[in-house]
Design a protein that fits this description.
single chain; 257 residues; 6-stranded antiparallel beta sheet; 15 strands
Length: 257
């Protein structure tokens, strides 16, 4: 048995000597890192070039002088403190009453949508500047009060009105037909409601008339249909409520050239 084992060992050694030697595998290629590629780096331009500005054409501003519309007037022609009651039409009518108080003429409209007017007797004005106080005691919404100007007849005159909602207007009545050269428009110079007092003023020269309230210019018109005539005051109720207006301190002056 021992001999058998030795024989087998001997045979194994012989076979091993006859086998070809194992050829070693070639080494794996070594990875060569690629050569670094230069990456583009943005160059910061701290002062970038700018286009040369094209000069704009020079503009010369012309200043238009503000038109002076303040009234220019001269000597006093007429002053009326309403102490002489015979100089104005007064009395009662279905629309209300026109009465005199202390230094004032009061027009009290009691009829719904009623209208009252009082004319100064024996007065005819062409070119003039006048002022008068108008003081609403009862007045609301579109109720009106103001002046009748260049009255040629009961059907031909201008009517300058302040409205109790803070508006002003000018109407022209020719042949009994009314038109509005200046329709109602709001104006801060016109106090709304009552009680209040406004100083109405009119400057008239030929075809041109300028209208003011409380020292502020309102509007102008040029109209040659009526160049002279009488003077009056009026009050009108736009609704069913009563209207009461007091007029006082009338002054009429010559106009300055």
């Amino acid at each position: 048995m021992k001999q058998t084992i030795l024989l087998l060992a001997f045979l194994a050694l012989g076979l091993a000597a006859c086998l070809p030697l194992a050829t070693p595998l070639p080494p794996l290629p070594t990875a060569t890192p690629p050569a670094p590629t230069a990456s583009a780096t943005a160059t910061i331009v701290w002062f970038p070039p700018t286009a040369t500005p094209t000069p704009l054409p020079s503009v010369t501003l012309s200043i238009t002088p503000t038109l002076d519309l303040s009234p220019r007037y001269g000597a006093l022609l007429l002053a009326d403190d309403f102490g002489e009651t015979s100089e104005w039409s007064a009395g009662r009518s279905p629309a209300g009453s026109m009465t005199f108080g202390q230094g004032e003429l009061t027009l009290a409209v009691s009829q719904g949508r009623g209208y009252l007017s009082s004319l100064r007797h024996g007065t005819s004005l062409g070119d003039f500047y006048l002022e008068i106080n108008a003081s609403p005691g009862i007045c609301r919404a579109a109720d009106e009060y103001g002046l009748l100007l260049r009255v040629a007849s009961v059907q031909d005159f201008f009517r300058f009105a302040l409205l109790c909602n803070g508006q002003a207007r000018l109407d022209r009545i020719l042949g009994g037909q009314a038109s509005s050269p200046v329709p109602p428009k709001p104006n801060a110079a016109v106090p709304p409601g009552a009680p209040s007092t406004s100083r109405l003023a009119v400057w008239a020269s030929g075809k041109e008339m300028r209208f003011y309230a409380n020292g502020q210019y309102l509007f102008s018109v040029r109209d040659g249909t009526l160049l002279s005539g009488g003077l009056g005051v009026f009050a009108r109720a736009a609704g069913d409520g009563a209207v009461t207006i007091n007029f006082s301190d009338l002054a009429v002056y010559q106009i300055a050239p």
